[in-house]
Design a protein that fits this description.
Elements: H1 2-16, H2 20-38, H3 45-72, E1 75-80, E2 84-90, E3 97-103, H4 109-113, E4 120-121, E5 136-139, E6 149-158, E7 164-172, E8 177-186, E9 191-200, E10 206-219, E11 224-231, E12 234-242, E13 246-252, E14 262-269, E15 281-287, E16 292-298, E17 304-311, E18 318-320, E19 326-327, E20 330-336, H5 339-355, E21 366-368, H6 370-373, H7 379-391, E22 396-399, H8 430-440, E23 444-449, E24 453-455, H9 459-463, E25 484-486, H10 492-508, E26 512-517, H11 539-557, E27 562-565, E28 583-585, H12 592-603, E29 611-616, H13 629-636, E30 640-644, H14 652-674, E31 676-681, E32 689-695, E33 701-708, E34 730-736, E35 751-753, H15 754-759, E36 771-779
Parallel strand pairs: 21-22, 21-30, 22-23, 23-26, 26-27, 27-28, 28-29, 29-30
Antiparallel strand pairs: 1-2, 2-3, 3-4, 5-10, 6-7, 7-8, 8-9, 9-19, 9-20, 10-17, 10-18, 11-12, 11-14, 13-16, 14-15, 15-20, 16-17, 24-25, 31-32, 32-33, 33-36, 34-35, 34-36
Helix pairs in contact: 2-3, 7-8, 10-11, 12-13, 13-14
The structure holds alpha-D-galactopyranose (GLA).
Length: about 775
């Protein structure tokens, strides 16, 4: 088998021309040998005999030398995208080495001649020579804890989605333990994904103690880390700091809402503090819905950083059965020489084109009922909201929490989760009548659910008390309302129930267009009554396997249903969900000023079309801040615009503004939701202004936003420079969302070159607290 594989590798080398010269000398000898036989008749038999023996000897020595050379020289695997190169080396019997990752290299020799090669193990394992970080650590069936992987084959192919895949097949040198390490490259967005498949044919279970998706070494000293952290109502706060000696971990062990305290995404700037549009930046995100850890370790050498990304194994030791395949989540990474902005644009493009369900679609403008009526849902209140929203151009109405529960009406957060039947007291005519009303108003209809949960006061819990996550011998810790519990998604009966929540609603009301899928509790009781006692450490992993299986079933049956991802706000902002979810509720904090921070953070990794951004009442319900309607709309229009209030609470003037703004958003929606983002002024820059713009990939249209958070007279004003335009094209500038459409800014209707707008910028000085400007730029 080994000989066959060596032959295969050998033939590949010929195809690659890597050993062409050696091959030529080999063929030369062979040809001489044949020539000799041809001439054999003209030489004496004894002479011919000697000559044949001599040639045979040379031939054998040559084959021997060639095979030694082959096993000593590693083959290079160049995984390229439009602007990046990832170079790996391996050959049969050797480890895979991570040689280089960075800007595209046209001549590999330059990597070596400039000492840019790293040459670290691309998937280091615990046990032998493992003083560095490790990606994989196991306990074999016989108690041995070592692994030493060697390549036995490499496969290369193109997937149907256009991604080019490299599959490195590795086996331990002693045990029948196998690792398949995958790299998948997407050319158009400079993104590479990596993950592994782990399996074995040992006699008994092998315990996986650590099983990361990726190990990325970085060779550079002046490194800075950017990442998101926060909590309820303050999601996706951006933190930026130097990477010093020691160990830093971004992690989340919530179990269910695994993006609140830390998002599984980061950027590492390789040349000093990260800048927006210049500098070398590596960005990554772990596409996994469960608990994770991203470690950044700078220990032995000041110029070496080790990044290890994967499932948090500490709380999830996994017992791998013989022949079972454990697939680690995908780690998605990119590299840009255009600073953080370049990394964001790459990830946005990848997300829209390859990961987010319906990622290339534009989204409807919706009104969500939550902040308008909270739990006080009834037919009349819903009708009034729908009519009010329709009058100002709304496209979709979503009925939030409070619509369900028959035996126990859902009047607050203490009851009824699990009882997904309409509350007849509140909605005697049922969901059908609501959809009729939406359609009378030319709108689509959506509905809120929280299917993974229950309350102790619910018919579901009364019937199935064993369906919740809890320890058998303890009173379970409860969540919202002092009664909420998480259902056990490891249990197939619970999975069926969760599938049926969606299925039953859709069967009874096929005209439901949208669902808001919420999850308002952590896994507070880390124990499953379904899993065997000796497999409790599988809980966090099995929960998410169960959840993903249900999502797959739902999507197989309802591919077009639009589903919003929500978890007490933005607690599940994570690419692992997006093959099944279309967008994300960014935060329960709808204060426009706070949203400048939250949306700025989100925008580092996630595109505008998943960023649900709603105009709510003033004073704001979370912060009490009074914010003008224009500022509220302008902020919401930087993402997927919606509303979260009673339209009837708008004054006449505000209503007229809202109507114009909604109409305007419809026209700029493709630019905002599908365009390239340029962050111009960060809310973290302790300056009064915040600014960003979206530009179409063709650079023929752009939308520019400028916000003034506070006003202090006599402050120095700078020209507002733009980015991402075509320097050689002229742009017609139009003001959008003007408070008074008859009195626009002096720049209205002027034509300015892209070069001037980017090099000089515009003098746009806003002389008021909480004022803002939106401009559209149209190439001439
Ligand atoms: C969560 C969501 C809110 C709303 C409520 C309803 O907090 O984030 O938007 O849906 O639940 O209970």
């Amino acid at each position: 088998m080994n000989v066959l594989l060596k032959c295969k590798t050998f033939l590949k080398k010929i195809a690659n021309g890597l050993f062409f010269r050696r091959m030529w000398s080999f063929f030369d000898i062979f040809l001489n040998f044949v020539r000799l036989i041809m001439r054999g008749l003209s030489v004496s038999p004894a002479e011919m005999h000697i000559k044949i023996l001599l040639y045979m000897k040379r031939l054998l020595l040559s084959i021997l030398a060639l095979s030694c050379a082959l096993s000593a020289m590693a083959e290079k695997y160049e995984i390229t995208t439009k602007n990046t190169t990832l170079l790996l080396e391996t050959s049969v019997g050797r480890r895979v080495e991570f040689v280089y990752y960075g800007p595209k290299v046209n001549n590999q020799d330059e990597i070596y001649s400039t000492s840019s090669q790293i040459r670290w193990n691309a998937y280091p394992c615990f046990g032998i020579n493992c003083t560095c970080e490790h990606a994989l650590a196991v306990t074999h069936a016989n108690g041995d804890v070592s692994l030493q992987l060697a390549t036995y084959d490499v496969k290369q192919y193109t997937d149907p989605d256009g991604g080019r895949v490299w599959e490195f097949l590795l086996k331990d040198r002693v045990f029948p333990f196998y690792v398949k390490q995958f790299y998948k490259a997407y050319d158009d967005c400079d993104v590479i994904k990596t993950w592994t498949e782990l399996s074995h044919t040992e006699k008994k279970v092998v315990v996986l103690n650590k099983f990361a998706s990726a190990y990325i070494p970085v060779k550079s000293g002046d490194l800075y880390l950017s990442y998101l952290a926060g909590g309820w109502s303050a999601e996706a706060q951006l933190f930026e700091e130097p990477i010093l000696r020691g160990r830093k971990t971004i992690g989340n062990h919530d179990g269910a809402r695994t993006s609140f305290n830390g998002n599984p995404s980061f950027m590492v700037s390789l040349d000093g503090p990260a800048r927006e549009n210049t500098g070398n930046v590596l960005g990554g995100t772990l596409s996994y819905t469960g608990n994770y850890d991203l470690s950044f370790v700078k220990d032995g050498n000041a110029n070496h950083l080790e990044i290890v990304a994967g499932i948090n194994a500490e709380l999830s030791q996994y017992y791998l059965e013989p022949k079972e395949v454990f697939t680690t989540p995908e780690f998605v990474f990119t590299y840009s020489t255009e600073g953080k902005g370049g990394v964001s644009r790459n990830l946005h493009r990848w997300g829209r084109n390859y990961q987010i369900l319906g990622g290339t679609d534009t989204r409807d403008i919706l009104l969500n009922s939550w902040e308008g009526v909270y739990f006080k849902v009834n037919q009349e209140a819903m009708n009034t909201m729908m009519q009010g929203f329709a009058e100002i151009g709304g496209e979709l109405f979503v009925m939030d929490d409070g619509w369900f529960g028959d035996k126990y009406p859902r009047d607050n957060g203490e009851t009824s989760l699990g009882d997904w039947v309409v509350c007849k007291k509140k909605l005697p005519e049922g969901i059908g009548a609501l959809i009729d009303e939406a359609e009378r108003n030319n709108m689509k209809f959506g509905i809120w659910i929280e299917p993974e949960m229950t309350n102790t006061k619910s018919e579901l819990y009364e019937k199935h008390p064993d369906w919740v996550l809890r320890q058998p011998d303890r009173e379970p810790a409860k969540g919202r309302g002092g009664t909420q519990l998480v259902l056990d998604m490891c249990n197939p009966a619970v999975q069926d129930h969760v599938f049926k929540v969606v299925d039953d609603l859709m069967q009874a009301n096929p005209r439901i267009y949208y669902m808001k899928w919420d999850a308002n509790m952590s896994i507070a009781n880390a124990s499953s009554l379904y899993l065997p006692k000796d497999r409790q450490s599988h809980l966090y992993i099995e929960y998410h396997r169960g959840l993903m299986d249900v999502c797959r079933r739902i999507r197989a049956k309802y591919p077009d249903l639009v589903i919003q991802l929500c978890a007490s706000g933005g607690g599940r902002l994570n690419y692992g969900f997006f093959p099944y979810f279309n967008e994300c509720w960014s935060s329960d904090n709808t204060d426009a000023v706070q949203r400048l921070y939250i949306q700025h953070g989100m925008s580092h990794f996630y595109p505008a079309n998943i960023m649900a951004s709603h105009v709510s009442a003033s004073p704001n319900h979370q912060t009490g801040r009074v914010v003008p309607i224009k500022f509220r709309f302008d902020v919401a229009m930087t993402g997927r615009l919606g509303m979260e209030m009673k339209p009837s609470a708008l004054s006449e003037k505000e209503r007229a503004f809202a109507k114009r703004a909604i109409e305007t958003y419809k026209s700029i929606r493709p630019v905002v939701q599908q365009g390239d983002l340029y962050r111009l002024m960060s809310p973290y820059d302790k300056k009064p202004y915040v600014s960003l713009m979206y530009v179409t990939p063709e650079k023929d249209r752009a939308v520019y936003f400028l916000f003034r958070r506070h006003f202090i007279k006599d402050e120095w004003e700078e020209p507002r420079k733009m980015e991402g335009l075509d320097p050689d094209r002229n742009y017609l500038v139009r003001e959008l969302n003007a408070e008074n459409p008859d009195k626009k800014l002096p720049i209205e209707g002027k034509v300015v070159s892209g070069r001037f707008l980017m090099q000089n910028g515009l003098r746009l000085n806003l002389g008021k607290d909480l004022s803002s400007v939106v401009l559209e730029l149209i190439a001439q």
